[in-house]
Predict the structure.
Amino acid sequence: MDTANSRDISPLSETTLYILVSLTHGPLHGYAIAKEVQALSKNHVILSVSTLYTTLKRLLEDGWIARVGEDPDPDDGGRPRKVYTLTERGEFIIGAEKKRLRALLTLVQTRTVREEK
């Protein structure tokens, strides 16, 4: 794998992280990704079609995900569903984000924070 660039090591948006994590158990088509994100976030993140496909396009361009064909089940309009999978770079990005979040959590846990009155 080539070296990470500054975009690769920046904190991920919640949407990006959920989409990447949704693909950790295998390839999914767009609608299934949206449903998985909704389930993983316990209905906290509900992706609009625009947000989902804009983010998928960027993740494809960055090489964090790849297309792996089409789902044999067409969508309601009869169109084939594009299927996406996590790449090695995407797995690396999730690992880097986990490390960043762990360090942040450790910092917060080691500090005493006064509660607001």
